[in-house]
Write a structure and sequence with these properties.
By secondary structure, the protein is of the alpha/beta class. The chain is about 40% helix and about 10% strand. The protein folds into two domains: about 1-45; about 50-320, sialyltransferase cstii, chain A (Alpha-Beta Complex), CATH 3.90.1480.20. Helix 7 links the parallel strand 4 and strand 5. Helix 3 (about 80-90) crosses helix 8 (about 235-245) and helix 4 packs parallel to helix 7. One of its GO terms (molecular function) is beta-galactoside (CMP) alpha-2,3-sialyltransferase activity.
């Protein structure tokens, strides 16, 4: 009996050892599979640091839309023609003349740097940009970490981050706005003004000095908190180029979001687009607020055409487009 008991005990111990070995092997296999899966997710969802192509010289040029010679920002060497001024003054019914415009720009350029470099171009560096729109399709997207991965993060108008970090990220390098959509910025963010009238240029000057006292179709911040040495102003001729060349004169003028998108094509090596597109009813709805006008659609802007162009570039793998939820 004792001998039989010992044999049974030995047999049971062997079985237990085999089970332990099997469990260990299974655990190792699962870990290897998970590791590969995570690696594939990173490769799939996170942009790589080596550029596949140079945007300006390749496909964009072939599409006959991209024009590298158009200066995106105002500077002393970048002069606006009277033809371009005539187009620009019609955007919001500017009454003043070309001389008034030039005098205001001269004053502005004495206050702010011509065009501070955002991320310097380099043969061994690929500047990846995330252009983050304000669409409600960002809600629940969990794109935040992916957005923050990029070198340059571009936001616009009243785009929020606080309270929405998981979906929209935390960092901002460039914030594009006009006076009626202005918000305060930290010292590390470039304020990029899109001017639609001479008053917008005056607002920028006064918001950093005496305080703005003028009136517009919406309330405007009198003062703004931002780094004066990181201010840039979009060239009105660049706005005309986006409207006439990219949008073929559709709509009254391009949206701030679409101008931000084309701007990214001019200053980045890789462009990744987030938060663009209307909701299921065709309205431009923001991720941080409830839509108050159910018939808004895309306002005076050719929203459908702007979206189609981004889609086309994404299909040609010129940009990467994250459509959200």
């Amino acid at each position: 009996m004792k001998k039989q008991f010992l044999l049974r005990s030995t047999s049971m111990s062997a079985m237990i050892s085999k089970k332990k070995l099997f469990a260990c092997l299974l655990c190792v296999s699962v870990c290897i599979i998970l590791k590969k899966h995570v690696a594939n997710m990173v490769l799939t969802h996170f942009p790589q640091r080596s550029c596949k192509k140079c945007l300006p010289e390749c496909d964009l040029g072939a599409m006959k839309r991209f024009n590298k010679s158009v200066e995106p920002f105002l500077s002393a060497k970048c002069t606006l023609s009277e033809v371009a001024f005539t187009w620009w003054k019609g955007l919001q019914n500017e009454k003043r003349d070309f001389i008034s415009y030039k005098a205001t720009v001269d004053h502005l350029l004495k206050m702010f740097p011509a065009a501070p470099d955002v991320v310097g171009a380099s043969p061994d560096r690929c500047r990846t940009c995330a252009v983050v729109g304000n669409s409600a399709n960002l809600k629940g997207s969990l794109y935040g970490t992916l957005i923050d991965f990029h070198d340059v993060i571009i936001r616009m108008n009243q785009g929020h981050t606080k309270g929405y970090e998981a979906d929209v990220g935390t960092r901002t390098n460039i914030h594009i706005m006009y006076p009626e959509s202005a918000i305060d910025l930290d010292d590390n963010t470039h304020l990029v003004l899109v001017p639609f009238k001479i008053m917008d240029l005056e607002w920028l000057i006064q918001a950093f000095t005496t305080g703005f006292t003028g009136e517009s179709y919406r309330p405007i911040k009198s003062k703004i908190k931002a780094n004066k040495d990181m201010v840039m102003v979009v060239n009105p001729d660049f706005m005309r180029y986006v409207h006439e060349t990219w949008l073929e004169k559709k709509g009254t003028y391009p949206s701030t979001g679409f101008m931000a998108f084309v701007l990214a094509l001019h200053i980045c090596d890789e462009v990744h687009v987030f938060g663009y597109g209307a909701d299921k009813d065709g309205n431009w709805d923001h991720y941080w607020e409830k839509l108050t006008d159910p018939n808004l659609r895309t306002g005076i802007h050719p929203g459908i055409d702007e979206y189609k162009i981004i889609q086309q570039l994404a299909e040609k793998q010129i940009v990467t487009f994250y459509t959200g939820l």
